[in-house]
Request: fold
Amino acid sequence: MKAGKAGMTRREVLGSLGLMALAGRVGFSPYAAQAEDVKQKAGIAMQLYTMRDPAKKDLADTLKKVADMGWKYVQWSGMPNQSADQIRAALDKAGLKCIACHCSMEPFEKNFDEQVAFWKTVGNKDVAPGGMMKDCTTNLEAWRKGAQRLDAIGAKLHAVGMRLSYHNHAWEFEKFPGDDRTKEDILMESTKPENLCAEIDIAWALAGGVDPAAYIRKMKNRCPVVHAKDVTIDGKKRTLKALGQGSVKWDEVFAAGKEAGIQWYVYEQDSGEGSPFDYAKASYDFLAKQSL
Reply:
Protein backbone atom coordinates (compact mmCIF):
# COMPACT_ATOMS: atom_id res chain seq x y z
CA MET A 1 0.00 0.00 0.00
CA LYS A 2 1.33 3.44 -0.89
CA ALA A 3 2.27 5.63 2.02
CA GLY A 4 0.21 8.70 2.84
CA LYS A 5 1.52 12.21 3.09
CA ALA A 6 3.96 12.76 5.93
CA GLY A 7 2.59 16.25 6.73
CA MET A 8 -0.68 16.87 8.57
CA THR A 9 -3.57 17.68 6.25
CA ARG A 10 -6.36 20.05 7.22
CA ARG A 11 -8.62 17.03 7.72
CA GLU A 12 -6.10 15.44 10.11
CA VAL A 13 -5.67 18.64 12.10
CA LEU A 14 -9.42 19.05 12.53
CA GLY A 15 -9.73 15.40 13.46
CA SER A 16 -7.02 15.75 16.09
CA LEU A 17 -8.70 18.82 17.55
CA GLY A 18 -11.99 16.95 17.67
CA LEU A 19 -10.38 14.06 19.51
CA MET A 20 -8.82 16.47 22.00
CA ALA A 21 -12.19 18.10 22.60
CA LEU A 22 -13.81 14.74 23.23
CA ALA A 23 -11.00 13.82 25.59
CA GLY A 24 -11.99 16.73 27.78
CA ARG A 25 -15.28 15.06 28.66
CA VAL A 26 -15.54 13.48 32.06
CA GLY A 27 -14.52 9.83 31.94
CA PHE A 28 -13.75 9.85 28.23
CA SER A 29 -11.10 7.50 26.88
CA PRO A 30 -9.61 8.12 23.41
CA TYR A 31 -10.12 4.41 22.79
CA ALA A 32 -13.90 4.88 22.94
CA ALA A 33 -13.96 7.67 20.37
CA GLN A 34 -15.11 5.51 17.49
CA ALA A 35 -18.07 4.16 19.50
CA GLU A 36 -19.41 7.68 20.09
CA ASP A 37 -21.86 7.55 17.23
CA VAL A 38 -23.29 4.20 18.31
CA LYS A 39 -24.14 5.45 21.82
CA GLN A 40 -22.75 2.79 24.13
CA LYS A 41 -24.11 0.00 21.94
CA ALA A 42 -21.44 -1.99 20.18
CA GLY A 43 -21.13 -1.15 16.51
CA ILE A 44 -21.06 -3.60 13.60
CA ALA A 45 -18.73 -3.40 10.63
CA MET A 46 -17.51 -5.49 7.73
CA GLN A 47 -13.93 -6.61 7.29
CA LEU A 48 -13.44 -5.84 3.59
CA TYR A 49 -11.10 -8.81 3.19
CA THR A 50 -14.39 -10.68 2.76
CA MET A 51 -14.86 -8.79 -0.52
CA ARG A 52 -11.30 -8.99 -1.82
CA ASP A 53 -12.14 -10.94 -5.00
CA PRO A 54 -14.95 -8.72 -6.36
CA ALA A 55 -12.98 -5.63 -5.29
CA LYS A 56 -10.13 -6.67 -7.60
CA LYS A 57 -12.54 -6.35 -10.52
CA ASP A 58 -14.43 -3.22 -9.44
CA LEU A 59 -13.71 -1.56 -6.12
CA ALA A 60 -16.31 1.19 -6.44
CA ASP A 61 -19.09 -1.23 -7.32
CA THR A 62 -18.08 -3.56 -4.48
CA LEU A 63 -18.13 -0.78 -1.90
CA LYS A 64 -21.51 0.41 -3.17
CA LYS A 65 -22.96 -3.09 -2.82
CA VAL A 66 -21.53 -3.36 0.70
CA ALA A 67 -23.30 -0.13 1.64
CA ASP A 68 -26.51 -1.23 -0.08
CA MET A 69 -26.62 -4.31 2.18
CA GLY A 70 -26.83 -1.98 5.16
CA TRP A 71 -23.22 -1.83 6.31
CA LYS A 72 -22.07 1.66 7.35
CA TYR A 73 -18.64 0.84 8.79
CA VAL A 74 -15.75 -1.22 7.45
CA GLN A 75 -12.29 -2.48 8.25
CA TRP A 76 -9.88 -1.87 5.38
CA SER A 77 -7.97 -4.99 4.32
CA GLY A 78 -7.34 -7.00 1.20
CA MET A 79 -8.31 -4.15 -1.09
CA PRO A 80 -6.46 -2.87 -4.17
CA ASN A 81 -3.40 -0.73 -3.40
CA GLN A 82 -4.36 2.94 -3.28
CA SER A 83 -3.21 6.15 -1.67
CA ALA A 84 -4.86 7.26 1.55
CA ASP A 85 -6.72 10.05 -0.25
CA GLN A 86 -8.02 7.59 -2.85
CA ILE A 87 -9.21 5.18 -0.16
CA ARG A 88 -10.97 7.97 1.72
CA ALA A 89 -12.61 9.25 -1.46
CA ALA A 90 -13.83 5.77 -2.42
CA LEU A 91 -15.30 5.20 1.03
CA ASP A 92 -16.91 8.64 1.13
CA LYS A 93 -18.50 8.07 -2.27
CA ALA A 94 -19.99 4.78 -1.06
CA GLY A 95 -21.17 6.31 2.21
CA LEU A 96 -18.88 4.10 4.30
CA LYS A 97 -16.57 4.90 7.22
CA CYS A 98 -13.37 3.05 8.04
CA ILE A 99 -13.06 2.21 11.73
CA ALA A 100 -10.07 -0.14 11.57
CA CYS A 101 -7.47 -1.61 9.25
CA HIS A 102 -5.26 -4.63 8.84
CA CYS A 103 -1.75 -3.73 7.80
CA SER A 104 1.86 -4.79 8.18
CA MET A 105 3.84 -3.59 11.17
CA GLU A 106 7.22 -3.19 9.49
CA PRO A 107 6.25 0.11 7.81
CA PHE A 108 5.47 1.58 11.23
CA GLU A 109 8.95 0.62 12.38
CA LYS A 110 10.53 2.24 9.30
CA ASN A 111 8.44 5.40 8.95
CA PHE A 112 6.01 5.78 11.82
CA ASP A 113 4.81 9.32 11.11
CA GLU A 114 4.07 8.52 7.48
CA GLN A 115 1.93 5.52 8.41
CA VAL A 116 0.04 7.44 11.08
CA ALA A 117 -0.72 10.21 8.58
CA PHE A 118 -1.87 7.62 6.05
CA TRP A 119 -4.42 5.93 8.32
CA LYS A 120 -5.63 9.14 9.89
CA THR A 121 -6.38 10.39 6.39
CA VAL A 122 -8.37 7.21 5.74
CA GLY A 123 -10.21 7.94 8.99
CA ASN A 124 -9.49 5.04 11.32
CA LYS A 125 -7.78 4.95 14.70
CA ASP A 126 -7.61 1.14 15.12
CA VAL A 127 -4.69 -0.72 13.56
CA ALA A 128 -3.97 -4.45 13.59
CA PRO A 129 -1.61 -6.85 11.85
CA GLY A 130 -3.15 -10.01 10.41
CA GLY A 131 -0.72 -12.02 12.53
CA MET A 132 2.77 -12.00 14.01
CA MET A 133 5.66 -10.75 11.87
CA LYS A 134 7.04 -13.69 9.89
CA ASP A 135 10.52 -13.47 11.39
CA CYS A 136 9.08 -13.78 14.91
CA THR A 137 7.21 -17.09 14.70
CA THR A 138 9.88 -19.79 14.62
CA ASN A 139 10.41 -20.33 18.35
CA LEU A 140 9.72 -18.96 21.81
CA GLU A 141 12.63 -16.51 21.76
CA ALA A 142 11.56 -15.10 18.40
CA TRP A 143 7.97 -14.83 19.60
CA ARG A 144 9.04 -12.84 22.65
CA LYS A 145 11.01 -10.48 20.42
CA GLY A 146 7.88 -10.06 18.31
CA ALA A 147 5.93 -9.18 21.44
CA GLN A 148 8.52 -6.53 22.31
CA ARG A 149 8.28 -5.04 18.83
CA LEU A 150 4.50 -4.89 18.95
CA ASP A 151 4.56 -3.36 22.42
CA ALA A 152 6.91 -0.63 21.19
CA ILE A 153 4.74 0.16 18.16
CA GLY A 154 1.62 0.10 20.29
CA ALA A 155 3.13 2.55 22.78
CA LYS A 156 3.85 5.02 19.98
CA LEU A 157 0.35 4.60 18.54
CA HIS A 158 -1.18 5.10 21.97
CA ALA A 159 0.72 8.37 22.29
CA VAL A 160 -0.90 9.74 19.11
CA GLY A 161 -4.44 8.62 19.98
CA MET A 162 -4.44 5.38 18.00
CA ARG A 163 -4.73 1.78 19.12
CA LEU A 164 -2.94 -1.43 18.19
CA SER A 165 -4.55 -4.87 18.36
CA TYR A 166 -3.41 -8.38 17.45
CA HIS A 167 -5.55 -10.65 15.27
CA ASN A 168 -5.34 -14.33 16.12
CA HIS A 169 -5.76 -17.49 14.10
CA ALA A 170 -6.12 -20.98 15.59
CA TRP A 171 -2.37 -21.59 15.86
CA GLU A 172 -1.82 -18.85 18.44
CA PHE A 173 -3.58 -21.14 20.91
CA GLU A 174 -0.85 -23.74 20.46
CA LYS A 175 2.23 -23.83 22.71
CA PHE A 176 5.97 -23.55 22.26
CA PRO A 177 8.12 -26.31 23.79
CA GLY A 178 9.26 -25.27 27.26
CA ASP A 179 6.33 -22.98 28.08
CA ASP A 180 2.93 -24.11 29.36
CA ARG A 181 1.19 -20.97 28.12
CA THR A 182 -0.38 -20.57 24.69
CA LYS A 183 1.35 -18.29 22.22
CA GLU A 184 -1.57 -15.88 22.56
CA ASP A 185 -1.22 -15.76 26.34
CA ILE A 186 2.53 -15.19 26.10
CA LEU A 187 1.88 -12.29 23.74
CA MET A 188 -0.75 -10.69 25.93
CA GLU A 189 1.27 -11.17 29.13
CA SER A 190 4.42 -9.77 27.49
CA THR A 191 2.76 -6.53 26.40
CA LYS A 192 0.99 -3.73 28.21
CA PRO A 193 -2.81 -3.54 27.81
CA GLU A 194 -2.58 0.09 26.73
CA ASN A 195 -0.09 -0.89 24.01
CA LEU A 196 -1.71 -4.03 22.59
CA CYS A 197 -5.30 -5.22 22.54
CA ALA A 198 -6.67 -8.57 21.39
CA GLU A 199 -8.59 -8.45 18.12
CA ILE A 200 -10.16 -11.82 18.90
CA ASP A 201 -11.17 -13.80 15.84
CA ILE A 202 -14.07 -15.73 17.33
CA ALA A 203 -14.15 -18.59 14.83
CA TRP A 204 -10.41 -19.20 14.92
CA ALA A 205 -10.42 -19.12 18.70
CA LEU A 206 -13.08 -21.83 18.66
CA ALA A 207 -11.08 -23.82 16.10
CA GLY A 208 -8.05 -23.46 18.36
CA GLY A 209 -9.88 -25.23 21.17
CA VAL A 210 -10.82 -22.10 23.10
CA ASP A 211 -14.26 -21.10 24.41
CA PRO A 212 -14.69 -17.70 22.70
CA ALA A 213 -16.99 -16.29 25.40
CA ALA A 214 -14.59 -17.30 28.17
CA TYR A 215 -11.64 -15.81 26.30
CA ILE A 216 -13.52 -12.55 25.70
CA ARG A 217 -14.12 -12.32 29.45
CA LYS A 218 -10.46 -13.07 30.07
CA MET A 219 -9.59 -10.12 27.83
CA LYS A 220 -12.07 -7.78 29.52
CA ASN A 221 -11.37 -4.15 28.59
CA ARG A 222 -8.65 -5.37 26.23
CA CYS A 223 -10.73 -6.53 23.23
CA PRO A 224 -12.55 -3.44 21.92
CA VAL A 225 -12.60 -4.75 18.35
CA VAL A 226 -13.30 -8.41 17.58
CA HIS A 227 -13.89 -10.40 14.43
CA ALA A 228 -17.35 -11.89 14.24
CA LYS A 229 -16.78 -15.06 12.27
CA ASP A 230 -18.63 -18.40 12.31
CA VAL A 231 -17.37 -21.90 11.58
CA THR A 232 -18.37 -25.53 11.69
CA ILE A 233 -15.75 -28.02 12.87
CA ASP A 234 -15.73 -31.66 11.79
CA GLY A 235 -12.51 -33.26 12.99
CA LYS A 236 -9.76 -31.34 11.23
CA LYS A 237 -12.17 -29.89 8.68
CA ARG A 238 -13.18 -26.29 9.32
CA THR A 239 -15.85 -24.68 7.17
CA LEU A 240 -16.58 -20.98 7.46
CA LYS A 241 -20.24 -20.02 7.50
CA ALA A 242 -22.43 -16.94 7.49
CA LEU A 243 -22.99 -15.68 11.01
CA GLY A 244 -25.48 -17.76 12.96
CA GLN A 245 -25.07 -20.77 10.68
CA GLY A 246 -22.03 -22.34 12.34
CA SER A 247 -21.00 -23.70 15.72
CA VAL A 248 -20.33 -20.43 17.56
CA LYS A 249 -22.67 -19.90 20.51
CA TRP A 250 -23.47 -16.30 19.74
CA ASP A 251 -25.76 -15.65 22.71
CA GLU A 252 -22.84 -16.49 24.99
CA VAL A 253 -20.43 -14.39 22.92
CA PHE A 254 -22.69 -11.32 22.95
CA ALA A 255 -23.29 -11.63 26.70
CA ALA A 256 -19.55 -11.84 27.28
CA GLY A 257 -19.00 -8.91 24.94
CA LYS A 258 -21.21 -6.65 27.03
CA GLU A 259 -19.20 -7.54 30.13
CA ALA A 260 -15.85 -7.17 28.41
CA GLY A 261 -16.51 -3.82 26.75
CA ILE A 262 -16.48 -4.85 23.08
CA GLN A 263 -17.01 -1.74 20.96
CA TRP A 264 -17.05 -3.26 17.47
CA TYR A 265 -18.11 -6.62 16.05
CA VAL A 266 -16.38 -6.76 12.67
CA TYR A 267 -17.84 -9.45 10.44
CA GLU A 268 -15.30 -11.38 8.39
CA GLN A 269 -15.64 -14.47 6.24
CA ASP A 270 -12.52 -15.67 4.46
CA SER A 271 -14.46 -18.03 2.21
CA GLY A 272 -17.87 -19.60 1.83
CA GLU A 273 -20.39 -21.26 -0.45
CA GLY A 274 -21.80 -19.04 -3.16
CA SER A 275 -21.24 -15.32 -3.59
CA PRO A 276 -19.59 -13.27 -0.83
CA PHE A 277 -22.40 -10.75 -1.34
CA ASP A 278 -24.92 -13.41 -0.34
CA TYR A 279 -23.25 -14.59 2.84
CA ALA A 280 -22.26 -11.04 3.77
CA LYS A 281 -25.91 -9.95 3.51
CA ALA A 282 -27.04 -12.92 5.61
CA SER A 283 -24.42 -12.00 8.20
CA TYR A 284 -25.48 -8.36 8.23
CA ASP A 285 -29.08 -9.37 8.82
CA PHE A 286 -27.96 -11.61 11.68
CA LEU A 287 -25.90 -8.92 13.40
CA ALA A 288 -28.36 -6.10 12.80
CA LYS A 289 -31.08 -7.81 14.82
CA GLN A 290 -28.88 -8.47 17.85
CA SER A 291 -28.97 -6.47 21.06
CA LEU A 292 -25.28 -5.62 21.36
Q: What stands out?
A: The beta strands are 43-47, 73-76, 97-102, 126-128, 163-167, 197-199, 225-228, 230-234, 237-241, 264-267. The chain has one domain: 28-35+42-288. Residues 58 and 129 are 25 Å apart (CA to CA).
